[in-house]
Amino acid sequence: MPSILKIKDNVGTTTFKQSSQQVKDLKKADPTYVAKAGTLFFVSSIDRGSSDSKSSSYYGGDHWKVTFKDKLKPQEGSDPLQTWFVYRDHVEEYRLIP
What pTM was computed for the model? Predict the structure, then answer.
C-alpha cells in the first residue's frame, strides 16, 4: 500500500542502507543515503520483516525494507537505488487512502 515516510523531527539525520547492519559496521563503499529530519518520502511498499531471527526476512528486529516511489542517489556516487533498509524508530509512516 502506498504511504509516506517522514523522518522524525528529533533524529537530526538517519542513514538508509542496503542491509540492516549498523552504519559503523558498513564498508566505506557500501551505498548509503542520509535523510534529514522532517523530510518526506513517497513509498511504494514496506517490508517490515519477520520476528523470527532464523528467517531470511529478519532485519535485526528494528529495520524495515522500504521500496521508495523514486530512486535515491547514494552519497557514494553509485547508481540510484529504489529499495533501502530504514531504521524504523527514525521514521513515521502515513498511509495514503485511495
Answer: 0.90
